Amino acid sequence: VRFCFLRHKSNQKIQAKQTNQSANPKMKVLLCGGGNAIHVLSSYVSALSDTHVTVLSLFPGEAERLAAAIPDEGIRCINDLGDDVNGKPDAVTDKPESIPTDLDLVIFALPSFVHELYLKTLKPYLKEGVTIGAMPAEGGFDLCAIHNLGSNFVRHSNLFALETLPWACRIIEYGKSVEVLGTKKEVEVIVSPKHGTSKESVTDILHRLVGKLPVFDPASNFLGVTLMNINSVWHPTISYGFYRNRDVNEPFDEPPLFYQGADEYTGEKLGLVSDEVLEVKRVLLKRYPTLNLDSLHHVSHWMLTSYGDDIGDKTSIYTMLRTNKGYRGLTHPMREVEIDGQKKYTPNFKYRYFTEDIPMGLVVTRGIAELAGVPTPHMDDVIVWCSQMIGKQYLVEGKLTGKDLHSTRAPQHYGYTDLDKFMEANHYLDAATGVEDEGPAVDGAQELPVSAQ
């Protein structure tokens, strides 16, 4: 299938889509979600003349609302780079049975805690060979996909995940217009290609859909990126450090600064949690010497690499947090309340810093550490406190056996208790040893205990 870059001469693209009867089959794309990113993707991908785009939302009422809101000219995307784009998806639905049966590409652009719902729902309608991925994915996306679609299906398909969205964006008017506030220069992408397919073939498709930027930088493997999930260390640990000695029920006069409000203890705690992650890396590399975990670094290294000269004082993590221009003015997620006629603010513990970065992030890393036999007292401090704030239980007496484990992507949720089996079943050693032959398929779903199903 041949594609074209968009972001330029968008009106010509739309006219071509409406009138061009190309001899080449159209690429059938399924976009899952209904928020900011889906508005951008719907505009971009639908503007191409050689695509057939379906939007699927399982959130009650969202598909009907979105379909009714999109005008004939499509969703307008106001770009920071190049011309604005208008694109209208061919269908918006909440019925998975109505999507095309021969999909080429499926993109999840929705909260990670509903990835499993969409994978389970779509399983009867997907064919092997499809390219399926998430923007962004959070930790353990591959575990979730293998468990729900089956190992054999995943090995015969292309699986990808972006560490973050390609752009910062916001809806201006629902169903009608969206704005790209800033396109990122580079985004790390993890690709697990089907047998005989290159990673570049997947990143080329992504580039042709979203434009030349950001550059998609291929990461080593899903395991390395899961362990290097910076948000899972950053957001929960900074929140824990800030609130640890505060009454969380006491309102604030104004939203407190998130990064610039961190104290020295928080900076040290971030370093200690990151040290524990690197100890997991050390243990894994000692046990599996050919394993590639080159993308896994300390948070201080990540900070310096990501922000460089934007950081005023590089003495410590604490000083970097407080002097990074990119973090200036960012606040803790809060809820606005009125008390005695005055506007006040209380912590919003239902924000993604807690609902995603813990169960789909830090708990996943903690689960891998448990399999590797690596103690994580500092990580445990953060997980236990955050769990209490969101009313969940993951850790019990230092083990991931809590009643809410089923809502995470920890290896233990999928039935893994042995490190070797975990590494083999999820094919982390295949890339390390250069294995090309498909071998016997191990279905992650079969290893899930009956009690956890």
Kindly provide the radius of gyration, computed on alpha-carbon positions and rounded to a whole number of angstroms.
22 Å
Stretches where pLDDT is under 50 for at least 5 consecutive residues are 1-22, 433-453
Biggest sheet strand order reads 5-2-1-6-7-8-11-12
Class by alpha and beta content:
alpha/beta
In percent, how much strand structure appears in the residues? Answer: 15-25%
Give the beta-strand count.
14
Main sheet makeup: 8 strands, mixed
Anisotropy-based shape:
globular
- Cα(first) to Cα(last) distance is 39 Å
Give the proportion of residues in helices: 25-40%
Number of helices: 17
Mean pLDDT: 88
If you had to describe this structure to a student in words, what would you say it looks like?
The protein is α/β, with parallel strands linked by helices. The chain is 37% helix and 16% strand. It contains 17 helices and 14 strands. It has helices spanning 10-19, 36-46, 62-69, 115-122, 141-149, 151-155, 199-210, 222-227, 230-243, 264-287, 299-307, 317-323, 352-355, 358-372, 377-389, 419-425, 428-433, and strands spanning 27-32, 51-56, 75-78, 85-87, 91-93, 105-108, 131-134, 158-162, 167-173, 177-183, 186-192, 215-218, 334-339, 342-347. A hairpin with a 3-residue loop joins strand 9 and strand 10 (177-183). Helix 4 runs parallel beside helix 5, helix 9 crosses helix 14 (358-372) and helix 9 (230-243) packs across helix 15. The radius of gyration is 22 Å and the shape is globular. The two termini are 39 Å apart.
